[in-house]
Predict the structure.
Amino acid sequence: MLHLYLKSLHIIGFVSWFAGLFYLVRMFVYHAEADQKPEHLREAFKKEYILLQKRAYKIICNPAMMITWTCGILMLINSPFFLQQGWLHVKLVLLVLLTGYHIFCKKTIERLERGESRFVFNSFQYRLLNELPTLFLVAIVLLAVVKNLLNFVYLFLGVIAFGMLLFVAARAYRKHRESK
């Protein structure tokens, strides 16, 4: 029974974590687009986006990530036999990479706040960056649901193909926006 409660909290945590990451990076897009605003509005918009980014990171992303990791680790302690399964090893690698993305977002907030242009992207690049968690989400959910029935090569190729599809869609959307 404990495992089911931990799994429920784990799911709630990762849904919240992904929601926070999607929201956060979308604000990076808006922050980058603030440069196109009239000069008298630009700084006010950027200050507001920094405030919202910090709040999203501290209030949504960090607690959700901690709930996800804590409940996941507690599930492994409660059911250590999962550690013998290959799908879980791949999932853990993806979670470490996702945590790296999470930390990268924090560094981006700090760079934007300092007004640095180095390692700061344009709005299209942030739109692409905003799709990265989607790839993690698809891969992690497929691994967790299908488990060892999944061919990891097909998963990898499928995620790459899905990523290319997202890139093509983002480029098409950018061309559509620019034509207006």
Remarks:
- The chain has five helices and no strands.
- The mean pLDDT is 91.
- The radius of gyration is 18 Å.
- The helical segments are 2-33, 39-78, 86-114, 123-146, 152-179.
